Amino acid sequence: MSPVTATLLRHRLRHLRHQIRLNSTSVSPPPPHFNLPLNHPTYLIWSANTSLGKTLVSTGIAASFLLQQPSSSPPAAHSTKLLYLKPIQTGFPTDSDSRFVFSKLDSLSLRRRIPLSISNSVLRSSLPVAESMRRSLKVSESGMCDLNFSEEKTVTGAPELLCKTLYAWDAAISPHLAAEREHATVEDSVVLKMVEQEMECGSQTNVLCLVETAGGVASPGPSGTLQCDLYRPFRLPGILVGDGRLGGISGTISAYESLKLRGYDVAAVVFEDHGLVNEVPLNSYLRNKVPVLVLPPVPKDPSDDLIEWFVESDGVFKALKEVMVSVYLERVERLNGMAKQAGEVFWWPFTQHKLVPEDNVTVIDSRCGENFSIYKASGDNSITQQFDACASWWTQGPDPAFQAELAREMGYTAARFGHIMFPENVYEPALKCAELLLDGVGKGWASRVYFSDNGSTAIEISLKMAFRKFCVDHETLLSLSEDAEEKKHVDVKVLALRGSYHGDTLGAMEAQAPSPYTGFLQQPWYTGRGLFLDPPTVFISNGAWNLSLPESFPQTASEESGTFTTRDEIFDKSRDTSTLATIYSASVSEQLQEYSESSQSAHVGALIIEPVIHGAGGMHMVDPLFQRVLVNECRNRKIPVIFDEVFTGFWRLGVETTADLLGCKPDIACFAKLLTGGMIPLAVTLATDAVFDSFSGDSKLKALLHGHSYSAHAMGCATAAKAIEWFKDPETNHNIDSQRGTLRELWDEELVLQISSHCAVERVVVLGTLFALELKFLMLSSLYASLYAKSLLEMLREDGIFTRPLGNVVYLMSGPCTSPEICHRLLAKLLKRLGEFNRA
Amino acid sequence: MSPVTATLLRHRLRHLRHQIRLNSTSVSPPPPHFNLPLNHPTYLIWSANTSLGKTLVSTGIAASFLLQQPSSSPPAAHSTKLLYLKPIQTGFPTDSDSRFVFSKLDSLSLRRRIPLSISNSVLRSSLPVAESMRRSLKVSESGMCDLNFSEEKTVTGAPELLCKTLYAWDAAISPHLAAEREHATVEDSVVLKMVEQEMECGSQTNVLCLVETAGGVASPGPSGTLQCDLYRPFRLPGILVGDGRLGGISGTISAYESLKLRGYDVAAVVFEDHGLVNEVPLNSYLRNKVPVLVLPPVPKDPSDDLIEWFVESDGVFKALKEVMVSVYLERVERLNGMAKQAGEVFWWPFTQHKLVPEDNVTVIDSRCGENFSIYKASGDNSITQQFDACASWWTQGPDPAFQAELAREMGYTAARFGHIMFPENVYEPALKCAELLLDGVGKGWASRVYFSDNGSTAIEISLKMAFRKFCVDHETLLSLSEDAEEKKHVDVKVLALRGSYHGDTLGAMEAQAPSPYTGFLQQPWYTGRGLFLDPPTVFISNGAWNLSLPESFPQTASEESGTFTTRDEIFDKSRDTSTLATIYSASVSEQLQEYSESSQSAHVGALIIEPVIHGAGGMHMVDPLFQRVLVNECRNRKIPVIFDEVFTGFWRLGVETTADLLGCKPDIACFAKLLTGGMIPLAVTLATDAVFDSFSGDSKLKALLHGHSYSAHAMGCATAAKAIEWFKDPETNHNIDSQRGTLRELWDEELVLQISSHCAVERVVVLGTLFALELKFLMLSSLYASLYAKSLLEMLREDGIFTRPLGNVVYLMSGPCTSPEICHRLLAKLLKRLGEFNRA
Question: Is the pTM of this model over 0.80?
Fold first, then answer.
């Protein structure tokens, strides 16, 4: 390296860093709708480093599985088969792990005098490989050739060994370099699809499948994606080949941690003995939960064919095989029992248990980004994939890459901070989170952040803030004296919209209009402490956006309702000067006036709204003009304004804050759900300086005496900080339209309009990550309609879309990073199913 | 390996695993009250594996720091000094990294003609080392000798290099093996203390300190503790020496992840070039946040003195040094600004901001187990340690080993599950958590688990459950019809104890008696929907346990009050047949009777109590006999019983559930706080089958329609499952008394009694992890008393104990795993300070 000044060098480094971008930050997207057989064990063979003997281990397992003495073999009816896959092979054909397994098993079979059918094949390769094998083949666009090399020895009725190399490169270097140099790349999703296809062994019993990785656990695959990320969607259990040398304890533990940090399970650690008793600290670290097995030293003489070593190692491999089988059986047994067990111990929210038979319970083995991996016990056991279109109940954000990043962040935060009590303290995640909030969703109005645990608590806090501010501003009106008892006759209420929802704790419930959810048998203490107005709504039906005014509006107003050409028109601020705006304003004034005349002691002390969309109330889009008028009317009366952005905030509706859609600012706003990227509970209530000041004084009793032990917990704050940054950065969220600062349109307009014109569809609402449709009641009873919704949902689940009805409303929800292509696919499936359904 | 059957082998393995227990599962306890200087940068030099050139990197950094041309050197007034520490050295004296740095800097100083004062010393060693160096020394108990070898070359006024090896062993193997073989061990805390002492460089400026680790990041230290765990309490920033070879990407990434997973920050990754451009995938993985620097290939010729290589590498080391300095400066700048920034953006709960000057804000850099690492800006910048005696506001549980384990578990859970919506679904963490709860705190009575996010929401849910059960059981009494409107006249209330606290959301507040926290200006909707009874309390004063009856009790009852010989006596069930029990029973009956006569429509629909200790109410211990009587009286009247164990549950009071202390079971119980080991929010409401059944029916509207988006979030459930198992297992929690199934006594009885006899102390309550004392008001005003408390707390913070008053109550809270020795030390300091305080 030529001598350059340090500053220059740093500049160069920075420059360089911008230039070089590989795939490894993005975890590979899974192939759509995969189906992994679970009727036999499948293991990934990982290694802490290169050259630690992964293939020796695969060979040993294969031998102990296939070459059993008849006495211990299973009944003859059960064919025995081992499938060995090497998806990625470099240094080929000099190095061919599948050939190694093939040839060693051949030798061992001869030596033990146990017949074996064996085969080895290499499916695709780079051109240099094909050339070196003297084959002239057609090269595909990606630079890959269909090599289709194979060799085999068949013995009828004997146990079978199938060895397959899926992709081979010539250079003995890391796959991402080989792929680059040999101009032969392969996409992650193609590798996965290929692995999935090859793993399919039908319903044969006594099958074992091994998938051997290349290099170390975090070595890049051909696209540059780290292998531990590449294979993550399948989340196959693993065997980790550790390092028995000096320094090998560290490498083995770190590799193990990299696997765990990606959600993998490791069934056993196995390594070659180098006389350093590395198994002692490894066992200690693993707390004896994962067995550690030690293989005898491998002969260093290159002429040694290792057959003696395999014989010597037989006991260890038998033990390893037993561990693999028992871990597999335990997993399947557990998965089989979970639905029943869940029905016996859980008390699910919003669920009438009597109506949930065991078959209806979904057993979820894991999630990878937007997709669930679901266990299907029916038919052949398998793990299938479903897109989580409930976006895990409106909280979920991460794509696979972001989930992996968050996992690292959360591990780090737990280790660095654990939890730290908040009052009068400061620690990095809480401060950073607060700064990002005030510079983002609170920009231009908020100056304080109050942390709590969920939307409902954030709302309770916002009400306490608003009422205090109101009381301070209206001291004379309320004739508040120092004597708390005298204040009892003052009745402070909220102004809210019918159909809005703010949470399930009593204070949040009181701010909602009466509904079946607030009945006496649900919460006998509920009274409904508010003035509840009927809002005008907008929606798409028959291919156009419509406005619908509530019946309470004067007859004359109905002339103003009608259709909009585009959604943007609805949000256009020019509507502020329309006749409709005047009608809205008059209607609000009148109702406020009536209310205050009807009671001397009741005062409207706060306005609370869900901006733009009423979520739990049925995915209704409220006319934003009406909400803006409402805010202005309240502001004129010094009534504090609360935006409940628990559902709507953080990109759910395509913008970071819906205040931007509405075109006006609140005094107080609540956020939760997507705030942490959909990982763990955290909520914030943001407030202006003026609201904060109404709690300032010389006495602690004047302070806001509300809090939760986990206020501003480090884990939540760190995740939130990460999510806020990730979602709004065009580098990490490809959906961000940098110029407008909004999400690009995720739902195909053409499909949306088609669906809205469907005869079974009453209305459609589409905004940001949300697509919702309400099914028509038609002439059916409400019960029948919800059954109708239910069977539609069942069909969608068959298509790999996990949905759950909200009454008569069917919705699809993506994460803020989900690609429009995926959304398109969801919508197309929905349209198709609606069509079929209609015919039925 | 001799051929054994697989089964036998597995047995042997299992057996072996039980025998071998090393230190590495336990993270080392930090030396008490450390103080790390922050007036100059200090870095740990880590490596992804052995032999990757850690010492070359240390040497290069030293050269670029010390051997600057005068033009670029700082003003003469600033002395320049580099301290190189090698705490653990094996293979000595053949391998001596401190000697290598020393001798290379000597050569480089000569070559560059820049004078340098250099020294190298080796402080302690094993006997074989001492013998090989022909020294006869006294061997300490641990087998260590004070070697005190040193060599130096002094040049007055020149920059200084101090190289020190702290502990040396002869064998060139892992330190834990060398320590064992050479019978020379050293405890983790001793290593840390030694490192801390050596790092102290006074107030000199322009100092850089390097601490070079041995082997890989997770290589065991001499005690067997992994080095990344060993050094964790200091959490020094690190430089990671990566691996440029084939497979090195994986090893480097995994090592990096192991460091992050322990809460470390890594300032830069540096590695030797092997022509494989490993920096590209590494940069991509690190998302360009951590610089990756590449060193030229190291000459392989053993006769090469590497001087030319150092010259060639100068630019890279200068860049590395600059990164180290700028990362350090950014950190200190951030730490310096945090207190002010916090005061401007946070809205702390329960805090009158006007009374919190910037100086009172505690800046917390991290936590390690029970200890905070606190940044002190006053005087010399430093990081000091304080025991978190608020147990992070009553939630905190982990010791350092458990925190590390939880961090791994949370990283895994985030990666495997993220968050999954709960209704009608099942996934492993939620199921496992529910099973452990029903088999633990719910054993013998509960059959259903309802998840929510915090204590307050768990209470709201419990009230909804209890009221429904009550309504179903008393249908006739309440004359409930199907018409919900008609039910409005029925007024369902709670029975609760004065001074109990159940949360800050409105529903939970309504179950509490009026207090300054429930006033109109805090929550104008609060009315206090209950019958609130005054409870008898017990406490220690003047060396004895006393019973105090409320004034509302009849005169005759006071004869029954008095003292107890032991705390066990208070919990003795034989008291059930005492006169006092009869008095209690009569009192409760009478008050219930009076209440029901006073109102036709009001019905007591639930009993809610905090068993044994009223936490937020002032750490009052309620006579358990009274609570037991109360429960029985309610049961006789078919009033559902709720135990609010949010504060008291999960070992806070020395038992997993306080139902065991009380000797009776509830119908419903709430848990939160320690449930997750004090990591993240999660709450559960447990219920009996009978309660669950009262929500069963054919209509969804009869179901419990309360829920939160993060209900049963995987992260919380996984953490809780881990914590439940960890705290109750004597293998992991050494405080568990296996026979009794309780925690052993943590607080020294003698000290407790002394404190209770102190003239400034009104009363003491001690149970489980809790020690609390109330200061006497004396003749002082309440304001004065709280100042008194405050200055006591300031003194305790100087002693390394972080406390925060609860009004006039000073408490110390440990985790369930905190050793009695630590608790003893805390108590002794408190007693000492009380004494001093009194004299003042």
Answer: yes
